[in-house]
Amino acid sequence: MDLEFTDEQEQFRASVRGLFERRFGPDYVRTCDARREPPREAFQALAELGCLGLNVPVEHGGAGATAVDVAILLEELGRGFLDLAFWVFRNVSHGGHALTTHGSAAQKAELLPRFAAGELSICFALTEPESGSDAAALQTRAILDGDRYQVNGQKVFCSGFRVSDYVLVATRTGEDKHGGITALLVPTDAPGLTASPIETIGHWPLGTTLLAFEDVEVPADQVLGVAGGGWRVITDMLQYERLCLSAARAGAAQAALADAVDYVQQRHQFGRPIASFQAVSHKLADMQVMAEVARMLVYRFAHRLDHGRATARDAAILKLYVSEAYKSIADMGLQVFGGYGYTMDFDIQRHFRESRLGVIGAGTSEIQRNIIAKTMGL
Ligand SMILES: Cc1cc2nc3c(=O)[nH]c(=O)nc-3n(C[C@H](O)[C@H](O)[C@H](O)COP(=O)(O)OP(=O)(O)OC[C@H]3O[C@@H](n4cnc5c(N)ncnc54)[C@H](O)[C@@H]3O)c2cc1C
């Protein structure tokens, strides 16, 4: 396995990084975060750069790029602005990847070019008030009536709904726990679908919502994959999602580390920079090790995905390690900022808040450990 990037990949990385340096620097990120506003200008700029169709096949208006390319994009977005990375990840994973892999010919022809152009965005509604970690216990019901499904139920923590045109909804269409699940593509403005914001400690620019479905009608040709085959679509998508989220968090972890390195060199106590205290510099060294291992795991997993060799265990190891590493780096980073880390004046507070979601969302760290232990025969 070669961990070197091609010249083209290095240029691509530089062009994404350059966008943050030139147009969407720290002040832009802070403003979107404080005002809880989606980074629409940055999203548009990424569309113009051709980033949004990165993994969409060429015949549908995309670049047909590899998982390694997608990881490069998300690592850079995570370094620059994690919530922007999350917006793009949903399009790349639930849009580009899931539609390309499971969509009908008509769905691909209609939707993929529009995702690639940045005209459409999508979010995902799996979690329900009574089914979180036990996701397949979902109860939102879709009943087929002629050529339409009628959907009733509740979803919780549907993130990015406010910027989305479609929501991919996991519904129950049969009694078998895993074999009775159907994935439906539902327009976010469908009559009978209402969203209420949930107050959280982070993820502010995109936000998360409680969704209520009351007799929402969805044409039967909006099934993604086949009726009753939703669990396959979801597990495949979650594996791709683990790459995207982990790449973004590996990038964000590097940004938090860079902030901490800067700060400890500038801050003086006892007549010298606090970086000169071993208790401080050793923290930074540990953070550096975690950031590098996280990054290596991201590209190892992307490489395996590209070669059809990625397993559920690889995905769980990746998700567990990278999200825990980002959380530790943000926590240790805040510590070296002392009292100033606890104020809203430095970006390290945002990393501290955002990194907390990593070990909960899309499968908690405990659930990842369960998956890994099971593959060890435990
Ligand atoms: C900000 C935010 C955004 C989110 N975005 C989305 C989204 O866009 N779409 C979506 O569908 N969902 C989303 N989620 C939901 C997220 O995936 C769930 O919160 C997560 O899977 C955990 O489910 P739960 O909250 O119901 O916790 P629970 O399942 O109730 O778990 C509570 C605790 O018990 C532990 N636990 C449960 N079962 C086991 C077990 N078998 N072994 C060991 N420990 C266990 C958990 O690890 C956890 O610590 C989001 C959540 C948040 C907070």
Please give a handful of descriptors for the protein shown.
378 residues; alpha+beta; Butyryl-Coa Dehydrogenase, subunit A, domain 1; Butyryl-CoA Dehydrogenase, subunit A, domain 2; Butyryl-CoA Dehydrogenase, subunit A, domain 3; 3 domains; 52% helix; globular; binds flavin-adenine dinucleotide
CATH top level of the largest domain?
Mainly Alpha
What is the chain-wise order of helices and strands? HHHHHHEEEEEEEEHEEHHHH
What's the end-to-end separation, in Å? Answer: 30 Å
Overall average pLDDT: 97
The CATH superfamily of the largest domain appears as Butyryl-CoA Dehydrogenase, subunit A, domain 3
Bound small molecules, deduplicated: flavin-adenine dinucleotide
Integer-rounded radius of gyration: 21 Å
Share of helical residues: 40-55%
Number of strands: 10
Q: Tell me the number of structural domains.
A: 3
Biggest β-sheet strands, sense, barrel: 4 strands, mixed
Strand content: 15-25%
Q: Name the strands of the widest sheet in spatial order.
A: 1-4-5-8
Number of helices, where a helix is a run of at least 4 consecutive DSSP H or I residues: 11
Approximate shape: globular
Unreliable spans? none
Return the CATH topology of the largest domain. Butyryl-CoA Dehydrogenase, subunit A, domain 3
**Named CATH architecture of the largest domain:** Up-down Bundle
Structural class: alpha+beta
